[in-house]
Design brief:
This protein is of the alpha/beta class. The chain is built from 12 helices and 10 strands. It is globular. It binds beta-D-ribofuranose (BDR) and calcium ion. Residues 4-298 form the Inosine/uridine-preferring nucleoside hydrolase domain.
Amino acid sequence: TTPIILDCDPGHDDVFAIWLAAAHPAIDLRAITTVGGNGLLEHTTYNARVACTVAGVSGIPIGAGAAHPLAGPLHPADWIHGPNALGGPELPAPTVPLDDRNAQQLMRDVIDASPEPITIVATGPLTNVAMLFEETPETVSRIAGVVWMGGSTTRGNVTPYAEFNAWADPEAIAIVLAAEVPFTMVGLNITHQALATPEVRARIAATGTRTGAFGRELLDYFSSTYERAERMPDGPLHDPITVALLADPAVATTVRTRLDVELAGTETRGATSVDLLDALDRPHNATVALDLDVPRFWSLIEDAVRTLA
Ligand code: BDR
Ligand code: CA
């Protein structure tokens, strides 16, 4: 099994990443940390606790991290995720507690306590991970790597060329890349293959679990905002592809390549530059996910939802 820390900003699709990580036998979810992103930190933290409560996941410490990006204010994605970052279903009061430790301290404790190197899976802006590396640089050599949902090999979704998590905190990406940690990017180019069609939503509800019913409400809302704001009738379930890739590497193809991030473009701040043609002749520093085995991915999600409460 692969031990992971899941750093997230729930967020509809982040919730499914939590569920997949908690349910899949090949993943050992050691901690959840939260960051401001899709919503304010208080909302994303609350929502992480809701996600665990709904699915009957207990005993996983949850630590709150950065409220805003390294270099400026947070602009929550409320046009996609709603004012509480988890629009749609009524949210049950969380029964799982919030840990006293902040995200960085919790990550350090989990990394220190683990005989095997931990993989950090990040499904929001990379703020918490960048802060961890800056506060304790020795962490970098002690983890197995970072698998991040964000960026794109093609175009963006907040600006023409920037994806939301990258656009939210490009400086954090630059810090994490400069650390030369094994880094995997799961960008829009692959996540837009994971469309929560009406058939997919029906399958998730048909699991008959409380998690499935809640998940269906999440996906209905998420797809309705995607239709309105992004002109896509079915919401793409971005975040859990990170966990799926660790649990079942055959779910996607990947390539070793060069990844850089734009910090200062006049129109392109937060754009990821993925040199698939090796045109820049720079050393490869990232693994980038390309093609999704779509049926295999939805089977992983469906199995997770069926396993949970
Ligand atoms: C990313 O931004 C958020 O809206 C989603 O949770 C995902 O992490 C997609 O651009
Ligand atoms: Ca997210």
